[in-house]
């Protein structure tokens, strides 16, 4: 799927029928089966001069809305059927890098270069929590990636300061910091069981983290072992995006080295490396529908939808 600009982000709808690609000034929605473009979402009130990259997209769980986050600090909630903006969430002071809906569709999490993650109410667009990184010694703790746990009780935020922070969704309390990456963390994703988290970093590695029991307030982690369970090495350049398949069998990563790798989270070994893009793989998304499909967005101005059926069967 050819675009006129870099494809910054890709995401599937919960039922797997549609895929959204965020580009310069516009977001495109495709029918996954036919690859036909079914919608173009563009805020016509914005002047065409200059760039305005859509850095993040996320479908509401019911598939009716798409949230987009851009370089103009605004989060737009689009009604997909009418292709109109239903709501604009304002409050961030820098680019929006990441968005995620809670599974019940009631909350939206956002991460921004302004060193905060925020939690918003989908119903009225109000900001419910500002999760502020206030470590005095950190020079640039911009938030690059946010993810709700499957049960919605915690939120993970990756940062340029090499750390991942875990917050309590309900009360905004910082529960823990995950330290171990040697460079900025660009992407986080929960494993399906919600007990583990995968991260990708500019240090060219992925890490798998154990998140403890999540019972009550305290996260009971055996600190002797440390929360980092595994480090995945093999990419030759920055790891820009990570995800995992709905069955938890594969961790998937996209890198500046133009490759996509499938990793076995039990062994930490890479099983498959897929090439096809002519530039960085900026974004990877796995279809949540259970169909063995994933999408990539790249600096080569293309979004691609791939099948990993043969990988699943051959394993």
Architecture per CATH nomenclature, i.e. the level-2 architecture of the domain at 7-100: Beta Barrel
% residues in beta strands: over 45%
Mean pLDDT: 93
Q: What is the terminal-to-terminal distance?
A: 29 Å
Structural class, by secondary structure, is: mainly beta
Count of β-strands: 27
What's the alpha carbon Rg, rounded to whole Å?
Answer: 18 Å
Strands across the major sheet, in which order? 1-2-3-4
**What is the CATH class designation of the domain at 7-100?**
Mainly Beta
What is the CATH T-level topology of the domain at 7-100?
Thrombin, subunit H
Q: Report the uncertain regions.
A: 213-224
Order of SSEs: EEEEEEEEEEEEEEEEEEEEEEEEEEEH
Number of helices: 1
User: How is the biggest beta sheet arranged?
Assistant: 4 strands, antiparallel
The coarse silhouette is: globular
Helix content: under 10%
